[in-house]
Amino acid sequence: MQHSILAINFGSTSTKLAWYLDEELQARETVQHDPERIMRFGSLLDQQPMRRAAIEDFLDRHGVDPHSLTAVVSRGGQTRPLPSGVYRINGLMLDDVRSGRWGTHATNLGVVLAHALGAEWGCEPMVVDPPVSDEFGPLARITGMPELSRQSSFHVLNQKAAALRHCREQGLRYEACRFVGVHLGGGISVCAHADGRLVDANNALDGDGPFSPARAGTLPSGSLVRLCFSDRFSEAEILEKINGRGGIMAHLGTTDIVEVERRIANGDTRAELILDAMCYQVAKEVGAMSTVLEGRVDAILFTGGIAHSERVTGRIRERVRFIAPVFVYPGEDEMQSLSQGALAALTGTRPCLELTAPAEAAPSEAASDEAAREFRLNQ
């Protein structure tokens, strides 16, 4: 049986769509929505008719009968923490994304719409390796400050996709392997994969690890606190320095690694120093994650857009190749990863999971953010 799969990935002002027959891409496009129109909607869920119209137009133009689809797979939304995997969207997942209790993002609407379309068209509504995936153990969470815990926040979808691809190509079983995965993009995540679980990673959004093209990574804590209270910057400005205008952007005024390499080729020693420092920090994080795996590392896997850079991967490789063999899978194709995950569940090569009620109830909407963090820590 051939499986017809529609992958959807909602951004704040974009709708990414792709249609696959089994593993073969048939059509894909990105619809850009007018930001002013987006702002006129009262809530995120109010955008549903506009987003649905974009999907139906895409299918119509490519001659796809919606009722012939086997699955509609969306990038995962903001729900309670859960293990990585392929999930059938059910009532509990819908309740989580509709409430906004765990965060608000356009992907929440993708989950809602995938479920509605699946019910109407008679196909499976799914998400794959959602960004809230959390498989950390207690040791990975604890910091030296009881008020703060380390959170699972990294490129789960692309990390898992690269590892599964490596296993397919090398004839390995993911659940029997130990990898250090390195996602090189606007954010950089380095993850320890142990026997089928993502057991530790740097917080690639606004926490720790290497600096990246747009993010500051680990910073000297005392100096950061003093900067926050120096009256030089507002809270919003500090947060933007951490995520958005940190890293290479802060040093060189660009996030484009191709541009940085062009400057280096033209003799810019400052650009060379900063890019090499980023590679140095990535290599340090690979070393740290290899200790999480107790030195038993089967392979180091590079993925992400910057993995196309032979300079970057080469600099990191020089420092980490003594740990394990290095493999490079450049690019980050979230649509393909979504489709492949859905296909694996449809064909039985990955289990299709469902969100179930946790052992203790999630904090109410009136609960404090601290209560939500505490709940996350205890799961």
What's this entry about, in short?
The protein has 379 residues and is of the alpha/beta class. It has helices at residues 35-40, 48-61, 91-99, 106-121, 138-141, 156-170, 221-228, 235-242, 247-252, 257-265, 269-292, 310-320, 334-346, 369-378, and strands spanning 4-10, 14-21, 24-32, 71-74, 86-88, 124-128, 178-184, 188-194, 197-201, 299-304, 326-330, 352-354.
Q: What is the first-to-last residue Cα distance? A: 39 Å
User: What is the helix content?
Assistant: 40-55%
Total helical segments = 14
Kindly report the oligomeric state of this protein: single chain
The tally of strands reads 12
Q: What strand line-up does the widest sheet have? A: 3-2-1-4-6-5-12
Rg on CA atoms, Å: 21 Å
H and E order: EEEHHEEHHEHHEEEHHHHHEHEHEH
Largest β sheet strand count, sense and barrel closure: 7 strands, mixed
**Share of residues in strands:** 15-25%
Question: Helix/strand-derived class?
Answer: alpha/beta
**Average pLDDT rating:** 91
> Which descriptor suits the 3D outline?
globular
Low-confidence stretches: 359-379
